[in-house]
């Protein structure tokens, strides 16, 4: 079943948001000197990367 233009637009918006969160969390992780906080930022980035990847499956 093909996605409508509205659905494709919504997916694009969601994917852009998730990609931005991945980028920001990875940048924050690199800035952290506290190892525990660094690991949390990396874990959050990985979670958002998973969200992005799941959204991408709707386009395939």
Please give the structural blueprint.
Blueprint: H1 5-31, H2 35-57
Helix pairs in contact: 1-2
Description:
This protein has one domain. Helix 1 packs antiparallel against helix 2. It has helices spanning 5-31, 35-57. The protein contains two helices and no strands. By secondary structure, it is mainly α. The longest helix is centred in the N-terminal third of the chain and has 27 residues, at 5-31. 7% of the residues are buried. The radius of gyration is 14 Å and the shape is elongated. The mean pLDDT is 96.
Features:
60 residues; mainly alpha; virion; capsid protein
Radius of gyration equals 14 Å
Give the proportion of residues in helices.
over 70%
Q: Overall mean pLDDT score? A: 96
Based on helices, strands and strand pairing, what is the structural class? mainly alpha
For the termini, the CA-CA separation is: 11 Å
Can you tell me the overall shape?
elongated
Q: Number of DSSP strands?
A: 0
Low-confidence stretches: none
- Secondary-structure element order, as H and E? HH
The biggest sheet amounts to:
none
How many structural domains does the protein architecture include?
1
- Please tally the helical runs, counting DSSP H or I stretches of 4 or more residues: 2
Determine the strand fraction and express it as a percent band: under 5%
Keywords: Capsid protein, Virion
Protein name: Spore coat protein
InterPro entries: Ferritin-like, Ferritin-like_SF
Organism: Hydrogeniiclostridium mannosilyticum
């Amino acid at each position: 079943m093909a996605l409508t233009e509205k659905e494709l637009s919504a997916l694009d918006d969601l994917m852009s948001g998730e990609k931005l969160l991945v980028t920001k969390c990875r940048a924050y992780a690199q800035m952290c000197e506290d190892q525990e906080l660094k690991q949390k930022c990396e874990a959050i980035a990985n979670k958002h990367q998973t969200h992005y990847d799941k959204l991408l499956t709707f386009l395939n």
